[in-house]
Every structure is written in C-alpha cells, then in structure tokens.
C-alpha cells in the first residue's frame, strides 16, 4: 500500500536514550569494581566483570539497532553524521569500562595503600564528568518534543560547559595520580607499574569521551 | 449524432467506481497523520471523513470539476462531432481507473489527479492532435503540481514555528496553549466558511461578494475560537515543563480531530473531480450539446462523486488504515496538526482556483515543512523519491492507456 505514513520512520532518540542507560550501567560498576579489587575479593570482582560484559553487550546491540534505523536518506531534526558520531563516542564509554575491567583481571594487581584512596577519588571525578553529560543527553528527549528550541537548549549548553570544566579537573587529577605512581616506582613491580599506568590512562579516557559527547551535543544544537 | 444511453450509463458507473476507488485509496493519506499520532481512532476518522468529504465535494467541488471537463481539451473543436468528445472522456475515465487498479495491485503510489489529467491529454492527442490541448492550462496545472507541495510545506513550516514560538518554547506551555489553540480553530473555521460562501455554488446562492463573505467568515471564526477558549482554560500551569509538554500534546489531539476534517473537506473539494469531471462533461453534452459546457456543474453529479468517495472510505478505509495505525511513528499531535493544516489550506486554495492537485503530494510537502522546522524525529526521504518518480511515470502511462481505449471505442461505435 502506497502510504504517506511510510514517511515517518522510527525516531532514533528513544533508542539513543536506552543506549545511554546501558552505558550508564557500565559506568556505575567502575567504582564497585575497584573496591572489590582493593578488598582482594576475587569473587565479587568476577561478578561485577560479568555484569559489565552484559551491559556492554546490550549497549552494542542498541548501537546496531540505531545504525540500522538511520540509513542514508533519513532526515532528522539534527545532523545525521553528528548523531552517529555521538552514538559512537557514547558507546566508546562502555568499551573503555570493559577495557579497564580486562586490565584489572589480567593478574592479581597490588595497589600501594597510599594510592588506594586517590584512585577512588580519580574514578569519582571521571565518573562525575560522565554524569553531567548523561544529564545533557537526557535533555535531548525533551528537546525532540520542543523541536530543538527554547529553554532546554540553554540548559544543555550550560551542562556542556560544566562538563568541560569537570574534564579539566579530571585531567589534572590524572596527572597528579600518575606522578604519585612514579614516586612509588621503586616499591612496585614493573608489571604492576605498567598496568596501573595504563588503567589510569583509561580512567582519564572516560572523562575525555564524556567531554566529547558534550562537544557533539553542542554541534547538534547549533544547526 | 445521437448519444446512446448505454454510454451515459456506463459513464455514470465508471465515474462512481473511480470516486469509490479514490476514496478508498486516498483515505489512508488524508487521515494517516491523525490516526498515526493517535489523535483519533479509525472509526472516528471514517465518520469525520464521510461527513467532511461529502460537504467538500458537493459545495466546493465544482471548480476543479469544471477544469477537468472542459479546461484540458478545447471543446469547440468537437462542435460537429460531439460524440467523439463523449467517447474520449469515457476513455479517459476508463483508462485512469484501470491504471489506478493496476498500480494498486503493485503497491505503487499513484496520484488519481495526475492520472486523470494525463488520460484526458492522451485522448486529446489522438483525437484532434497537438493543437486541441489547452497547453496554457496544462502549464498552469503542472505549475500547481510543483507549487502545491511547496506551499503546503511553507504553511506547515510557519504553523509549526508559531506553535514552537508561542507554546513549546514557553516556560508554561499549557498556559500559552489556552490562547493559541482557539486561534487556530478560529482561523480554520474562517477559511472553511470563506471557501464555502465566496464564489461558491450559484444555484445554492453561495456566492456572496468578497466583503460580506469575509465578514461572515470572520464572525464564524471568532465564535468557534471563543467556544474553544471558554472550554479550554487550564489550571495546570504549575506542573513541570516536561509534564506540560505532554499535556499540550493532548490538547493538540483535540485540534487534530478538527484538522482531520479539514483535510477531508479539502480532499473532497479537489479530488471529487477526478472521478466525476469527465462524467460532468459527458452528461452536459448529452443534455445540452457542447454549448452546455458553459453551464454550472449539476449538484447531483457532485453528490454522486461525493457519495462514491464516502462509500470507498467506509468500505476499504478500515482495512487500509489499520496497517497504518499499529505502526509506531515519530509524529505527535502538534506536528500532525501543523502538517494537516498546511496541506489542507494549500489544497483548498488550489481547489478554489480550479487546479487539480494531489492531496497526497501536498501532505508530503507539509510533513517535510514541519521536518525543516526540526519538528519530526525522523523522516524517510527515500519514500519521497519513490512518490516523485511514480508521478512522472503516471502521466504518460495514463495518456497511453486512454489513447488506446479511445481508439478501440471509435472502432466499435
């Protein structure tokens, strides 16, 4: 049947929101994961790892679904390429959490006691950046309803700015903690040193990616 | 030459059948956005559609009907062989009906309007040659085919921008809607009334001069707006912004019941001609000869077409739209309203100008207009390409079919 309703294809904004919820599930598990590692609770660490893998898989599925409903020729209220890149970066967040999980499971990793608290703080700062961007993403749903104008736009732009500030803070914290790590280089095994250094890098990436989603949100809105 | 009664009877039957098919076909498009946004149920759509289509067809359908019966080929050419014109109109009706039937089977989006215009041109070319076609009129019609979707898009874009500016961007959308919604109800009412009483049916004395027609239309609009305003005041302004946005969409549902009728009215006014335009030509020649074409289109013919459309949507509309209603779509009532208002207004204006335009194409244009205002979550532009390419093919196909049928008919009689 030749029908005008075929014009309206499935909106990507609801699945995008669901995807962000799944990514959020991954991010929420980062702190408990580190706590389990520090406590030496192998069983808890494995359980959390499995949860992360599951959430990452679910996010991946949603990513595919969104790409499937956005072939070329679909006209959106925002730039299609921007939206797909935004999706990719949001998905990278979940992948990064999985990478952290993998590095933590390679060997029984020892953390110097004076570093434990600092690591948790660093994790919190990075996750904080993600949270701000999550809020901004949630606003997208309202923006779809208002046609990308009005109050909501300003609120998102404020959040994006806030995320930028928080990201700089996370950068500094990353530098601090790396310095601290190398101050302790004589006490650490080289393998531990190497792994911790890479893990810190990934935690820093979390904040970076979150900040980049903010950038793309700004692009989406400034059309 | 005397025209056999059998020709007249078969013309009545085919015209009725063509109207019936048109109603069944276009119903899903005219009401798709209303049903898709869950503003109305299928049953309501059919009821509103039946009433509004009939009123539009009978009271405003004469302008386009006149164009179809005598505006495409030069009737004076057939002064001394009027039977050929009768056969030609019959062949056009038959050819365009066949094409629609065929396209329907294949699931191709074919415009009834384009096929009847193509069919009449086709028979004209074989019967009298290049010079009997009123090319300046054809040019106007083709221009109107391009302009109607664009104007639908423009009106829909502006309508949605007004809704955004006045309601959606407002901190308290629900409070803002209390004034904006009655405004649109009043505006729609005024336009419909104006279309009925200005240059309307002479035999019903519906042809008031512009000034008094305008005044009466405005008064009716004001009354309708006031009624809605009184019944629509709200105390829900204190709710959070997001909640209010949802509540506002609920109010647009009400408005969409109104514009769904508006679309049906405009569709009836324009598309009734596709089926009964040729019949109107045949009947007047049968009664009065070629000279008769100068007279008004008789109401019973308009009513016949209107009833055909109404029966078509009553019988098949259900089946057609059911597949639609269950699909999840990204259209909400405020968007559906904007698109319908834009499309119906454009189609109605073209109907008054006597231009046979496609309601479907105008509605597609209107939807894109709302999309350009960033109003719609996702539009599949590939569908637009399909619709455009199919109307390019429709015109020559209809022309060839009707030319063939005309040749066969002249051999028979």
Query: Rg of chain B, please?
Result: 22 Å
Profile the largest sheet of chain B.
none
What structural category arises from helix and sheet content of chain A?
A: mainly alpha
Here the CATH topology of chain A equals Methane Monooxygenase Hydroxylase, Chain G, domain 1
If you average the pLDDT of chain A, what whole number results? Answer: 91
Instruction: Please trace the helix and strand order of chain A, writing H or E for each element.
Output: HHHEHHHH
Query: Over the alpha carbons, how many angstroms does the gyration radius of chain A reach?
Result: 20 Å
Structural class of chain B: mainly alpha
- How would you describe the shape of chain A? elongated
Strand content of chain B: under 5%
| Strands of chain A, total number | 1
The domain tally of chain A reads 1
Top keywords for this entry?
heterodimer; A: 223 residues; mainly alpha; Methane Monooxygenase Hydroxylase, Chain G, domain 1; 80% helix; 1% strand; B: 413 residues; 78% helix; 0% strand; elongated
Describe the 3D structure.
The complex is a heterodimer of chains A (223) and B (413). Chain A is mostly helical. Chain A contains seven helices and one strand, in the order H-H-H-E-H-H-H-H. Chain A has helices spanning 13-28, 30-39, 42-68, 80-105, 113-146, 151-183, 190-221; one strand spanning 74-75. Chain A is elongated, with a radius of gyration of 20 Å. Chain B has one domain. In chain B, helix 2 (42-60) packs across helix 9 and helix 6 (135-168) runs antiparallel to helix 7 (173-197). The model of chain B has no long low-confidence stretch (mean pLDDT 88). Strand 1 of chain A pairs antiparallel with strand 1 of chain B, so a sheet runs across the interface.
């Amino acid at each position: 049947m030749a029908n005008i309703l075929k014009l309206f294809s499935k909106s990507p904004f609801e699945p995008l929101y669901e995807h962000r919820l799944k990514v959020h599930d991954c991010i929420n598990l980062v702190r408990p994961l580190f706590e389990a590692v520090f406590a030496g609770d192998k069983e808890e660490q494995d359980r959390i790892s499995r949860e992360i893998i599951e959430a990452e898989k679910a996010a991946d599925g949603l990513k595919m679904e969104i790409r499937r409903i956005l072939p070329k020729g679909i006209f959106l209220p925002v730039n299609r390429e921007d939206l797909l890149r935004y999706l990719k970066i949001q998905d990278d967040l979940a992948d990064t959490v999985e990478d952290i999980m993998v590095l933590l499971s390679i060997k029984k990793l020892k953390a110097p006691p004076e570093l434990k608290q600092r690591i948790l703080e660093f994790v919190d700062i990075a996750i904080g950046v993600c949270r701000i961007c999550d809020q901004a993403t949630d606003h997208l749903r309202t923006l779809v309803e208002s046609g990308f104008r009005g109050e909501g736009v300003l609120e998102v732009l404020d959040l994006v700015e806030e995320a930028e500030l928080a990201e700089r803070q996370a950068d500094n914290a990353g530098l601090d903690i790396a310095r601290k790590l190398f101050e302790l280089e004589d006490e650490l095994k080289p393998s531990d040193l190497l792994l911790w250094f890479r893990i810190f890098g990934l935690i820093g990436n979390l904040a970076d990616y979150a900040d980049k989603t903010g950038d793309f949100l700004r692009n989406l809105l400034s059309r | 030459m005397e025209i056999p009664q059998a020709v007249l009877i078969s013309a009545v039957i085919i015209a009725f059948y063509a109207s019936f098919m048109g109603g069944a076909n276009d119903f899903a498009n005219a009401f798709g956005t209303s049903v898709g946004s869950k503003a109305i149920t299928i049953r309501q759509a059919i009821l509103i559609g039946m009433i509004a289509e009939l009123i539009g067809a009978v009271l405003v359908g004469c302008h386009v009907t006149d164009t179809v019966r005598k505006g495409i080929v030069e009737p004076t050419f057939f002064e001394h062989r009027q039977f050929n014109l009768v056969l030609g109109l019959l062949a056009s009706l038959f050819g365009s009906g066949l094409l629609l039937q065929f396209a329907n089977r294949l699931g191709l989006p074919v415009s009834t309007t384009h096929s009847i215009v193509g069919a009449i041109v086709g028979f004209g070319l074989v019967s009298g040659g290049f010079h009997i076609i009123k090319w300046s009129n054809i040019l106007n019609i083709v221009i109107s085919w391009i302009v109607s979707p664009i104007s639908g898009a423009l009106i829909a874009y502006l309508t949605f921008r007004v809704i955004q500016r006045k309601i959606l961007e407002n901190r308290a959308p629900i409070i803002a809607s209390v004034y904006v919604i009655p405004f649109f109800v009043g505006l729609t009412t005024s336009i419909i009334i104006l279309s009925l009483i200005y240059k309307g049916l002479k035999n019903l004395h519906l042809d008031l001069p512009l000034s008094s027609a305008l005044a009466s239309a405005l008064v009716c609009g004001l009354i309708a707006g006031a009624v809605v305003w009184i019944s629509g005041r709200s105390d829900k302004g204190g709710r959070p912004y997001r909640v209010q946005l949802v509540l506002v969409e609920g109010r647009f549902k009400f408005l969409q019941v109104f514009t769904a009728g508006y679309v049906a009215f405009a569709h009836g006014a324009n598309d009734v001609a596709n089926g009964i335009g040729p019949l109107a030509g045949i009947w007047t020649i049968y009664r009065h000869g070629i000279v008769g074409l100068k007279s008004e289109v008789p109401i019973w013919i308009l009513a016949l077409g209107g009833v055909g459309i109404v029966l078509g949507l009553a019988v098949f509309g259900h089946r057609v739209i059911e597949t639609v209603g269950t699909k999840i779509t990204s259209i909400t009532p405020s968007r559906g309203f904007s698109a319908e208002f834009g499309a119906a207004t454009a189609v109605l204006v073209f109907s008054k100008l006597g231009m046979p335009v496609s309601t479907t194409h105008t509605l597609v244009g209107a939807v894109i207009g709302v999309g350009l205002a960033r109003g719609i979550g996702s539009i599949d532009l590939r569908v637009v390409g399909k619709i455009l390419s199919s109307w390019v093919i429709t015109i020559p196909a209809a022309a060839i079919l009707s030319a063939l049928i005309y040749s066969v008919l002249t051999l028979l009689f």
